[in-house]
Amino acid sequence: MSDDTTHFGFKQVRVEEKAKQVGKVFDSVASSYDVMNDLMSLGIHRLWKRVAIEYLAPRTGHKVLDLAGGTGDLSLLIRPRIGDSGKLVIGDINHAMLAVGRDRLIDKGASDVPVMRMDAQKLPFAENSLDRVIIGFGLRNVTDKDAALAEMRRVLKPGGRALVLEFSKPVFDPLAKIYDLYSFKLLPKIGKFVAKDEDSYRYLAESIRMHPDQHTLQSMMEQAGFDEVRHVNLTGGIVALHIGFVR
Ligand SMILES: C[S@@+](CC[C@H](N)C(=O)[O-])C[C@H]1O[C@@H](n2cnc3c(N)ncnc32)[C@H](O)[C@@H]1O
């Protein structure tokens, strides 16, 4: 057992403890995850995801990984774009989230998209094997984010691209203040009322604050070996998408 610690929300925990704690959060929220997303964001998460897919630009025949893909929102947008010659996989570390995702994909006519249990820090793909990798609202939950970014870079082919969609830092002070009030006062209460789980939604707010801001994440992607990394703020920086290319 190591003495190294990391953050789980605002708490410090041993490095090997974080994945277990994150696992408990997603075990608990899986069944109400989609309803809560719509409620918490007033449906805006759908727009963020649509914009992300435009930047990801999956094409016919592409091999795509929807990493930390959970209940499959992004995959449902990607699947029609890659055609029958393309390959799409949802990868996630959590059984409960994947189980909800698999059922949803079947219900929505995308039963040919496999779900695979995997850890973003050690992807089960050969290097230079994929055209696109996207991680949506997943990276902040990963213990070693640099390792995950390096893995995303490793598996991409030349000409490939990675997209990170994640909560970020609001760029206007007044927005940041309102958002803070919302995240720390209201969000855990909505979580308590709807998902019967106040703590997981407090973790959500805390994990967002602990996540690297736009510029830090951009540098991390450059460090991981991506070319021409840039970011685009959405909804005043509440969310940002980062895109990195492999040249
Ligand atoms: C907030 S959900 C996002 C789901 C989906 N991408 C979306 O945008 O709706 C975060 C997901 O990250 C997954 N996750 C956390 N740590 C992970 C890891 N190390 N490797 C793969 N997935 C992980 C969780 O299990 C969870 O399904």
Q: What's the helix and strand layout?
A:
Elements: E1 5-8, E2 11-14, H1 15-29, H2 33-41, H3 44-56, E3 63-67, H4 73-82, E4 87-92, H5 95-107, E5 115-117, E6 130-136, H6 145-155, E7 156-167, H7 173-194, H8 198-210, H9 214-223, E8 227-234, E9 239-245
Parallel strand pairs: 3-4, 3-6, 4-5, 6-7
Antiparallel strand pairs: 1-2, 7-9, 8-9
The strand count comes to 9
The N- and C-terminal alpha carbons lie at a distance of 40 Å
Overall structural domain count: 1
Helix content percent band: 40-55%
Helix/strand order = EEHHHEHEHEEHEHHHEE
Major pleated sheet: 7 strands, mixed
Instruction: Using the coordinates shown, work out and report the CATH topology.
Output: Rossmann fold
Strand ordering within the main sheet:
5-4-3-6-7-9-8
What hetero molecules are bound to the protein chains? S-adenosylmethionine
β content, as a range?
A: 15-25%
Oligomer: single chain
How many H/I helices? 9
The CATH homologous superfamily is termed: Vaccinia Virus protein VP39
Average pLDDT for all residues? 96
Q: What overall form do the CA principal axes indicate?
A: globular
